[in-house]
Automatic annotation (TrEMBL):
Family designation: Belongs to the class-I DAHP synthase family.
Pathway noted in the entry: Metabolic intermediate biosynthesis; chorismate biosynthesis; chorismate from D-erythrose 4-phosphate and phosphoenolpyruvate: step 1/7
Name by which UniProt lists this protein: Phospho-2-dehydro-3-deoxyheptonate aldolase
Top-level division of the source organism's lineage: Bacteria
Catalytic function, reaction form: D-erythrose 4-phosphate + phosphoenolpyruvate + H2O = 7-phospho-2-dehydro-3-deoxy-D-arabino-heptonate + phosphate
Function: Stereospecific condensation of phosphoenolpyruvate (PEP) and D-erythrose-4-phosphate (E4P) giving rise to 3-deoxy-D-arabino-heptulosonate-7-phosphate (DAHP).
Alphabetical UniProt keywords: Amino-acid biosynthesis, Aromatic amino acid biosynthesis, Transferase
Record carries keyword Amino-acid biosynthesis: yes
Lineage: Bacteria, Pseudomonadati, Pseudomonadota, Gammaproteobacteria, Cellvibrionales
KW Transferase (keyword) present: yes
Cellular-component GO terms for this entry: cytoplasm
Listed EC numbers: 2.5.1.54
UniProt-listed Pfam families: DAHP_synth_1
Organism annotation: Mangrovimicrobium sediminis
Length: 351
């Protein structure tokens, strides 16, 4: 007999179920209040009911939970005086989309050595989100794998669909059933229309295959997500798209699609041309636009960590504490003045 099944699968391991993980690491009342409050506040800001601006701030990806929690506590303290103008949401990204290959994130490879202890990664991810929520700080995360969200989605206040997956039908279906507001990034080439199509698709109900909390394969029916928003992140072909002309064009395109003219601008990625220090230039432009009366800018994103820059993972060499191992980040010390600048712009525009 000729073998036709799994001819390129070299092994298999049992995967913990979402229900068992949630029983081991349950969501408490304080954390649940943080998550729910973060969702409601973000929805109010992005829909224009609340005049503040959302600021999604944190490392490119999580590789050291201890450093992330240290960052979270410092960010929360720094943002306390800005609460009337800025809602801070911690960027907590566990999955790293790769153009070709590379480290895939804390869930897939928590030991940073290619051992892929995914069950351990899921425990770490859920625990860190619980601890962030216990601090009282809402969290944002990108949903890359369409099944892993079942393990921690109830701890996330803002979801994101990335530039590489925004055209994916299964990610649009996933977003239609998520319980939080979701941002859709423009495509890697800079095209905004694919993200607008994704927002429109996610507003509708869908039937799609997934897992239940018990880990059983199932066909789920979603009701549609009315809180989908466009994230401008620049692109390879279009270049940066945070300028006044780009922001206005994106807002017009949203209105033309009968969608709320509400934008989140990513100060990193294509808009900073991969130079973390250029995030300051992007923020300055956004603040000028806000002060000038641009109401479409409802949120910003900043890639920031305790230390500036990035580092490689080298076997046998200790990692620098609080420095990214993926995209280079701005230091928290340099990030706080940008958030203060943003708050000042919001206050001035509101007055």
């Amino acid at each position: 007999m000729h073998s036709t099944d799994d001819i390129r699968i070299n092994g298999a391991r049992p995967l913990i179920t979402p229900w068992v993980l949630a029983e081991e690491l349950p969501l408490g009342e304080t954390a649940a209040a943080t998550v729910t409050g973060g969702r409601r506040q973000a929805e109010a800001i992005l829909s224009g009911e609340d005049p503040r601006v959302v600021a999604i701030v944190g490392p490119c990806s999580v590789h050291d939970p201890r450093a992330l929690l240290d960052f979270a506590a410092q960010l929360q303290a720094a943002c306390a005086p800005l609460a009337d103008a800025v809602l801070p949401i911690l960027r907590v990204y566990f999955e790293k989309p790769r153009t070709v290959v590379g480290w895939k994130g804390l869930i897939n490879d928590p030991d940073l050595d290619g051992s892929f202890h995914i069950n351990r990664g899921l425990h770490l991810a859920r625990r860190v989100l619980l601890e962030v929520a216990e601090l009282g700080l809402p969290a944002a995360s990108e949903f890359l794998d369409t099944t892993l969200g079942q393990y921690y989605a109830e701890l996330v206040s803002f979801g994101a669909i990335g530039a590489r997956t925004v055209e994916s039908q299964i990610h649009r279906e996933l977003a239609s059933g998520l319980s939080m507001p979701v941002g859709f990034k423009n495509g890697t080439n800079g095209q905004v229309d694919v993200a607008i199509d994704a927002i429109r698709s996610a507003r509708h109900g869908h039937w799609f295959a997934s897992l239940t909390k018990e880990g059983t394969p199932a066909i789920l029916e979603s009701s549609g997500n009315p809180h989908g928003y466009l994230i401008l992140r620049g692109g390879r072909e279009t270049g940066p798209n945070y300028t006044p002309a780009a922001v206005r064009a994106a807002a017009t395109a949203l209105a033309r699609a009968d969608l709320p003219a509400a934008l989140i601008v990513d100060c990193s990625h294509g808009n900073s041309e991969k130079d973390p220090r250029r995030q300051a230039q992007v923020m300055s432009s956004l603040c000028e636009q806000i002060q000038g009366g641009e109401q479409a800018i409802r949120g910003v994103m900043l890639e920031s960590h305790l230390r500036e820059g990035r580092q490689d993972v080298v076997p046998g060499r200790e990692l620098v504490y609080g420095q990214s191992i993926t995209d280079a980040c701005l230091s928290l010390a340099d990030t706080v003045p940008l958030l203060e600048q943003l708050a000042a712009a919001v206050r001035m525009a509101r007055s």
